[in-house]
Amino acid sequence: MAKTLVIGAAGQLGIELVLALQAQYGVDSIDVSDIRVPEDEGVMRSRFLHLDATDEGAVSKVLEEGRYEAVYHLAAMLSATGEKKPIAAWDLNMQSLLNVLEAAKEGWVKRIFWPSSIAVFGPQTPKKLVPQDALLDPTTVYGISKQAGEFWCRYYHEKYGVDVRSLRYPGLIGHRSVPGGGTTDYAVDIYYKAVGGEDYTCFLKADQALPMMYMDDAVRGTLELMAAPEERIQVRTSYNLGGMSFTPSEVANSIQQILPNFQVDYAPDERQAIAESWPESIDDSQAAEDWGWKPQVDLSEMTSIMLDAIGKKAQTPVH
Ligand code: SER
């Protein structure tokens, strides 16, 4: 049976991607791994492998034994935490990627997915509709690791024929998992506060626009990219991926359409400088042309989905 491995299955994207892969291929076709046990019961229906992705020997053993059709390598330290622990972020983000690429070079993995990010862009990059081939100008350790990782991916593809594919995700917003340590995390936290009947203090400025995406779009785009015929994949660094662009005050307004008493105030912290270095919106026409990418969910639809789903979760007793 063709199997898929998700590394970093306990993370925000990992949980969502595992659930989608399980729905598509069946729980027995997916192995999930992380350094910590995923808290999601659905994820844990698949076989769990405890794996430190920075451990070269452990990664190569798992991949040699598993002979996976596809590996989604998602383990990483995000932008805000990375600034607090720069060397640890670099070690985790780079070493784990190289471990997976090396295993693929040995022929143990058919296809790899590895996420990049809008954090590869920086002050010299255009702010609006950043083109695919814009200057990469990262200011965070996270962004530097993503930039370097993109070129490692292309290197392994060109030099060793490794079929590695990548997307530059915007901020990802979903209700089945929570993010940790990112600059875009406010756009998830705000919905939980709103549903909980609390006010929210935002750590970014009210008018700080950033590229964002509803999680189901991100997961669908990832699966579409991975299913595309190899000859369609023209970009072997990482594809720009656009969804929507909004500011904290716009998301607050969209929540207030449904919960009129919801209040937000603003206390920007060190994450504001990171956000300011990133663009506001992304030109993803290359992804559209090469493999048919098209986002589906806009801000108002996302807000109603998020409030509804988090509201239902809050009513479900935890046992
Ligand atoms: N969501 C990420 C972060 O904020 C960006 O890729 O770090």
Characterise the protein shown here.
With 319 residues, the protein is an alpha/beta fold. The protein has two domains: 4-170 and 215-240, NAD(P)-binding Rossmann-like Domain (Rossmann fold), CATH 3.40.50.720; 173-211 and 243-313, UDP-galactose 4-epimerase, domain 1, CATH 3.90.25. The protein contains eleven helices and twelve strands. Strands 3-2-1-4-5-6-10 form a seven-stranded parallel β-sheet, sandwiched between helices. It has a three-stranded mixed β-sheet with strand order 7-9-11. Strands 8-12 form a two-stranded parallel ribbon. Helix 2 packs parallel to helix 4 (86-105) and helix 6 runs parallel beside helix 8. It is globular, with a radius of gyration of 19 Å.
Q: Which features would summarize this protein structure in a list?
A:
319 residues, alpha/beta, Rossmann fold, UDP-galactose 4-epimerase, domain 1, 2 domains, 7-stranded parallel sheet, 3-stranded mixed sheet, 11 helices, 12 strands, globular, binds serine
CATH fourth-tier homologous superfamily of the largest domain: NAD(P)-binding Rossmann-like Domain
The major pleated sheet works out as: 7 strands, parallel
Mean model confidence by pLDDT: 97
CATH class of the largest domain: Alpha Beta
Counting structural domains, the number is: 2
SS-based class = alpha/beta
Q: Tell me the span between the first and last alpha carbons.
A: 35 Å
Portion of residues in beta strands equals: 15-25%
Number of helices: 11
Task: Outline the secondary-structure elements.
Layout: E1 4-7, H1 12-25, E2 30-34, E3 47-50, H2 56-66, E4 70-73, H3 79-84, H4 86-105, E5 111-117, H5 141-160, E6 163-169, E7 171-173, H6 186-195, E8 200-202, E9 210-214, H7 215-227, E10 239-240, E11 244-246, H8 248-256, E12 264-266, H9 271-277, H10 285-291, H11 299-315
Parallel strand pairs: 1-2, 1-4, 2-3, 4-5, 5-6, 6-10, 7-9, 8-12
Antiparallel strand pairs: 9-11
Serine binds at residues 78-79, 117-119, 142, 169, 171, 182-184.
